[in-house]
């Protein structure tokens, strides 16, 4: 048996646990127990009373930006503005690859 590529089904949901925060917030820690989950059509960020659910066609892209301790995952609206709720986590590479494997436009910052 050989290796199977891609290693996961792109129709399967990707799921990450980290922090969640709401803009405007300036500098500071995100709330723990945040969740990021997405498949090839829908992305969901939630935790600590915050909730954001979007479909791929309604966004310009997903921005990955480096913070002091973690990377931020932000939804970019078609006008270039950012959604109020964002996800924060270590492991930027794994999130980037999972987004790209499912066809989400990734904007690096």
Strand content: 35-45%
Low-confidence stretches: 1-6
Instruction: Output mean pLDDT.
Output: 86
Query: Would you tell me which CATH topology applies?
Result: PH-domain like
The top-level CATH class is Mainly Beta
Straight-line distance between termini = 40 Å
Number of helices: 1
Can you tell me the CATH architecture? Roll
Principal-axes shape call: globular
Order of helices and strands: EEEEEEEHE
Helix fraction, binned, reads: under 10%
Per CATH, the superfamily is Pleckstrin-homology domain (PH domain)/Phosphotyrosine-binding domain (PTB)
The domain tally reads: 1
Structural class, please? mainly beta
Task: State the gist of this model.
With 109 residues, the protein is mainly β. It has one domain: Pleckstrin-homology domain (PH domain)/Phosphotyrosine-binding domain (PTB) (PH-domain like), CATH 2.30.29.30.
Reconstruct the topology from this structure.
Layout (H helix, E strand, L loop, with lengths): L13 E9 L8 E8 L3 E6 L2 E6 L5 E6 L4 E6 L8 E5 L2 H10 L4 E3 L1
Parallel strand pairs: 5-8
Antiparallel strand pairs: 1-2, 1-7, 2-3, 3-4, 5-6, 6-7
Q: Can you give a write-up of this model?
A:
With 109 residues, the chain is mainly β. It has one domain: Pleckstrin-homology domain (PH domain)/Phosphotyrosine-binding domain (PTB) (PH-domain like, Roll). Helix content is 9%, strand content 45%. It has one helix at 92-101, and strands spanning 14-22, 31-38, 42-47, 50-55, 61-66, 71-76, 85-89, 106-108. The chain has an eight-stranded mixed beta sheet with strand order 4-3-2-1-7-6-5-8, covered by helices on one side. The protein is globular, with a radius of gyration of 14 Å.
């Amino acid at each position: 048996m050989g290796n199977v590529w891609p290693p996961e089904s792109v129709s399967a949901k990707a799921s990450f646990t980290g922090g969640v925060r709401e803009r405007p917030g300036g500098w500071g820690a995100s709330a723990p127990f945040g969740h990021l989950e997405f498949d090839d059509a829908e992305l969901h960020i939630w935790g600590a009373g915050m909730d954001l659910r979007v479909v791929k066609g309604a966004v310009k892209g997903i921005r990955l930006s480096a913070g002091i301790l973690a990377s931020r995952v932000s939804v970019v609206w078609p006008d270039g503005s950012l959604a109020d709720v964002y996800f924060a986590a270590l492991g930027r590479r794994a999130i980037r690859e999972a987004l790209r494997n499912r066809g989400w436009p990734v904007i690096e910052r």
